[in-house]
Write a structure and sequence with these properties.
five-stranded mixed sheet; D-Maltodextrin-Binding Protein, domain 2; single chain; alpha/beta; 329 residues
Amino acid sequence: MKKLLVVVLVPLFIAMTSTAGAADKARVGYWTSGVSLGYGAVLEAERFLEKQGLEVEFTHFPDVNAQILALTSDSIDLSFGTPLAGVFSAAAQGIPIKLFAVTQPADAKFVVPADSPIQSLADFKAKKIGSSPAGSSVAVIASTILARNYGITPADFTLVGGNESRLVQFLAQNQVDGSALRSVTVLQVQDELKLRVLGDFAEEWKKFAGTDAVPYVGSAAITAKFISARPEAVTKIILGLLAAERWGAAHPNEVTTILQKAGLPEKDAGAFVTQWSKMYKLDFSPAVVDSLKLQHAEFVKAGAVKGELNADLFVTGPFNEAVRLQEKR
């Protein structure tokens, strides 16, 4: 009888220890043609998620809106730098998607060529304006600002979409009258392309929103089934993202090297380093969640997003737990 008991218990013990030691698996996606590249390259190179005990499969997307399609089709579990406006729209359509943090503030500017006759954003009416593709958060925030501050609706101008390099090309070749560009892009091209800044996203947002809270463009989005079944894994993911953010700010030389290995010229990599703390700011505190609700309301007023906002879109538990664990350390 004792022999039988040992035979039964040994496989059971092996199975239990194997399960306990197994890493949480997560399929993570991000956009590599925009600002997310810097954060993602550092996250991968320094294995910040793996250091939290996660087994990670990264997927790179050349198109900003592809992340939401991948979440919808269950091709990935989560993504960061996900267009916030796209998440709002997807959730309103009943797609089982949740937010567990925001990652990238709207660090962008409205610009025109230095010799342009355009003197104010009010002059953007009936003009061709470059921006990240339609549906991206940059495009939606730009449209909201123009509508709320200057009475220029999306029907009053032509949006010309493209990634940052294409938008710079459009400006250089006079294919657009002005553009919404990331601050890091403005910094990257200042020696080759003379631009004049007409407005800053954060400052323009404050004019009508009545708050000092900065609007966000990039979010951390996740499938509803993953976060409901594995909240502890999401807490680990947040800890890894926070660690990458802090490390990037404290190690500019190493970040420059990582980004050069990712394909950026030294000057462009240096611009990412200079803007790092402005571009990446993971948060999901109550004040930020309140600001996101306001952001959704403003998007709806401007006609840039349709549908109601469900309060259960915001899952704050894993972020709060990550903050608690950080404070204990």
